[in-house]
Amino acid sequence: MSQAAQLKSVSLERVPSLEIDYMQLDDIIEKEFNNDKENLIMILQAIQRRYNFLPRPALAYLSTKLEVPFSRIYGVATFYSTFSLEPRGRNIISICLGTACHVRGGERVRERIEETLNICDGETTEDQRFTLETVRCLGGCSFGPMVKINEDMHGRISSDKADKILDPYK
């Protein structure tokens, strides 16, 4: 599937109330980053902070405002794994499956959280509350298995208690 076809297939049905605030995009593009196309990555980060993903209409608007081809913006947005073209949950769960976490049960933690939320790696719950992703290292190897929820780090998570760490985020 071509990159353009992939982008067209991004479903906004999962966020029915999504409305692009073009005045807010103007504030980001003009006031924060001075219409400078050299700041493209930082602009994309700001847009993603606002919507929790990069909506196609916002990317198209950015292309027009910066006079940068849409294909270049799309290329940057798909190159970096930190960007998402799909709607993401309010809470991002990152489960470490690096070597240290893996040997200490990281896979079992992932399986337990997948069962609890009824989603797989890379998916978002229907209520847009959680997105689950696996990562190769969270930098806490001696505390594995590690789980990061938003900016909160949780270490030495056992599979039988993995679902409990989600409670404060529900």
TrEMBL record:
Residue numbers binding [2Fe-2S] cluster: C96, C101, C137, C141
Database matches in Pfam families: 2Fe-2S_thioredx
Keywords linked to the UniProt accession: 2Fe-2S, Iron, Iron-sulfur, Metal-binding
Domain of life: Bacteria
GO molecular function: 2 iron, 2 sulfur cluster binding; metal ion binding; oxidoreductase activity
CDD domains: TRX_Fd_NuoE
Bound cofactor: record note: Binds 1 [2Fe-2S] cluster.
Entries under InterPro entries matching the protein: NADP_DH_HndA-like, NuoE-like, NuoE_dom, NuoE_N, Thioredoxin-like_sf
Cofactors: [2Fe-2S] cluster
PANTHER family the UniProt entry points to: BIFURCATING [FEFE] HYDROGENASE GAMMA SUBUNIT, NADH-QUINONE OXIDOREDUCTASE, E SUBUNIT
Similarity remark: Belongs to the complex I 24 kDa subunit family.
Listed name of the protein: NAD(P)H-dependent oxidoreductase subunit E
Species the sequence originates in: Candidatus Desulfatibia profunda
Source lineage: Bacteria, Pseudomonadati, Thermodesulfobacteriota, Desulfobacteria, Desulfobacterales
